[in-house]
Write a structure and sequence with these properties.
By secondary structure, this protein is of the alpha/beta class. Helices cover 35% and strands 19% of the residues. The strands form four sheets. It has a seven-stranded mixed sheet with strand order 11-10-9-12-13-17-14, sandwiched between helices. Strands 1, 2, 3, 6, 7 and 8 form a six-stranded parallel sheet that branches. Strands 4-5 form a two-stranded antiparallel ribbon. Helix 8 packs parallel to helix 10 and helix 15 runs antiparallel to helix 16. The C terminus is likely disordered. Bound molecules: S-adenosylmethionine.
Amino acid sequence: MARTHRVFIPAARLEEFFAPVRAVLSERGVPLRLGRLRPRLELPELACFDLRVAGSVWRGRAPYVFPLMATMEDMSYPQEDGTPLECLPGVDWVVLGGDPAQFSLALGQASSICRHEAVELTPYFEVAGPLPRQRQESDVTVRLRKKWYFVNHAAVTSHLDQLLALPEERWHETGYVAVQDHFETFRPYIEARLVREPRVIVELGCGLGQTARSLALRFPEARVVGLDVSRESLRVAREKFSLPNLEFRECNFADPFAFDDGSVDLAVSSSALNISDNQAGTADETFRILSPGGLLVNGCIFEAFHSYWDFPQSAFTPTRSNLFLADWLAAAQRRELGMELHHWTRAISTHYFASGRLAAFEGAFSRWQEGVRHEPFVPYDYAQCTGFMVAGGSVATPEDLKVPPAHHLDAMEDILAACERLDRAGRELTDMTWLTVASCTGLFPEAVGFLAACLPRAAGVIQGALDTNLLQYIRPQAA
Ligand SMILES: C[S@@+](CC[C@H](N)C(=O)[O-])C[C@H]1O[C@@H](n2cnc3c(N)ncnc32)[C@H](O)[C@@H]1O
C-alpha cells in the first residue's frame, strides 16, 4: 500500500541532500515534502519493518540507517527460489551522514519498490534513544543466496538451457546471472577519454556478451572481441549476439592475452578484473596489449576507501582481492600511462552484520599482524566500494591520486586523523554509526580492544565514543 515515506535527515545537511533527492524523486513522479524541524528525534518513534528475502524474514526494530546501508540492490531482485520480492514495506530512514548522491539513488530505488505516494524529509538536530536492541539469534533468518557480482561459470552452466531459450530481455527470470548491459555506465568515461576512434576493442570478462554487443553497435567501424574464461557464457553470447564486427573468444586472466603488443585501442571490463587472482600479471597484460593512446575503462568493486563513518567497521574487513589498485597503478606507471579513479564511497550493509555472517572476518586481525595484506578472492558480501579505474587515453594521473592500502587496518591512522578533525556534529554522527554497528555485531569489543592496543592514538577516539553512548551496548557483549 502506498504511503508517505519519512526520512529523517541532519538539519545541518538538509540543503545539501535536498536537491539530489528531489531530482531523483521527480524522475519517478514522487512528490517531496518537507517535514517540520525536529529538535530531537526519538528513535522508538520510528516505524519497525520486516524485511522479507527469499521467503525468510529479518525482523528489525531498526529504521533503515544511511550511510550504513547505501544500496538496496542486493534485495531488489528476484530470488533463487522464485519467491517474489516483498521487501521494505513502508521503511523509514534515518540519515546519519554520507553522500547525498548515493542516498538519492537508494531512496529512488526504495520508492520504486515501495511505490511511495510521497517522501517527507524531516530535518533533526539530534537523535535520542537507543538504536535497535541487541540482535538475538532467533531474529535472523536472512539467506541471500545469490549476488549479482559473483555470476560465474557454474551459475551460467546450470542455466544454460534457459539462457539459450529465453530472449535477452527475459534473462533476469533465471534469477542467477548478471543480465545488465553496462555500456551506458561506461559510455561517459569512454567518450571523455578516448583520443581517437578505436579500431580494436576488447571486453575482458564479457560474460554473456551484452556490453560487448553494445560496444559493437556504438563503434561499427571497430572489431570488438569479447573475452571470457567461461565457455558456456561464450556460447550464449555467440548465439544471442551476432554482429559482423563482434566475436567472442576464450581467455583466462591467468594466461598471457592472445593479442599483439599495442594492438588494442580500447579495453573495457565490468565486474571481472577484480576476480583475477593474478592482479599484477593481468594488469601487465592489459597494458601490454593497449596501443599508444589506447584506453582502459574498468568498472568493478575496488579495495575499500575509507571515511570516518567507516570506522570501526573497516577494521573487520580485509580488502580481499578486489581490484588490487596498487598493482594496476604500478603497471600503468611502467608504461607511462595516466590513471584516474572514480569511486563511490564504500558502504557496509548492517544486515550483513545482523545476519551473523561474520565468520569471514575471523582471524582478520591476526592475519594483518602477520603481514597479510591481500587475501585470495572470496565472495565479498560485506562491503562494497564500486567504481571506475580509467587508464591511458587522454588520462593524466591526478596529483592527489590516492591508492588505498591493501588492508583496511593499514588506513587506521588516516581514519583516526579524520575522526579527530570532525566537528561536534560530525563526531556525533560517527558515534551513531558506531552505535549501530555495536548493536549488530558481537565482534565489536574485539575490534575496540585490538585497535586500542595496536594504535594508541585510537584509544582516545574509542573512549570518546564509549563515553557518549556505546558503553551500554558493549558491556553486555564483553561480559
Ligand atoms: C561478474 S561476471 C561479469 C560479466 C559481465 N562483464 C557483466 O558485467 O555482466 C564476471 C565474469 O568474469 C569471468 N571470469 C572469471 N574469472 C575469469 C578469468 N580467470 N579469466 C577470464 N574471465 C574470467 C566470468 O566467467 C564472468 O563472465
